[in-house]
Predict the structure.
Amino acid sequence: MITADGSTTIHIAEWDEQYHSKHGAIQEAKHVFIKNGLSLFANQKIGILEIGFGTGLNCFITFLEAPKINLAIDYVGVEAYPLVAEEVEKMNYVDQLEVNEFGDIFNKMHKQDWEVKEEISPEFSLTKRNQFFNEINDENKFDLIYFDAFGARVQPELWTEEIFEKMHKALKPDGVLVTYSAKGSVRRAMLAVGFLVEKLPGPPGKREMLRATKKS
């Protein structure tokens, strides 16, 4: 489906749920994950964990934005149910972002093998993991987590204390997790496992979002 800013997303009819906000997939990615996450880490080499690689939009925009703030990135995207090629081909992000010169990069991200770390550019490496979120067992590895799972309305098991405990362990001290969600139950689960949690203005169509920081 086409979202309000002209960018595409995938609609799951049986859940009445989208991969991205219907109010604008690109706008949501830039607001939640870039403005309120990536921008905190200028002039550094960082590790990013994405919960829900999905269409590759967050990864692609991160690749495009990183050079603007002098970032080197080791990016890990976790996805239990990868898209098929026909679905990827319907995504219009390259055109909507007006970055035709990087169209090959977007395709490369999707075509690369799973479980293998590949250099997308000298300052950006990508590893895609085909795994369920409850199988994540990293410790003190990442500086930033993009938590972009399907909403708690349709997959409440992904927004529990158990999952956020895994996220807390995966982050380095002072590491940050950002998500589009602002549900009270999500905030309480984050607080319960030791995160400091902020409510921030949300992207178009959402009043608020959450940012959680692991205490050093």
Q: What stands out?
A: Helices lie at 25-35, 57-65, 85-88, 93-96, 103-111, 161-170, 184-192. Residues 25-35 form the longest helix (11 residues). The domain at 25-214 is CATH 3.40.50.150 (Rossmann fold).
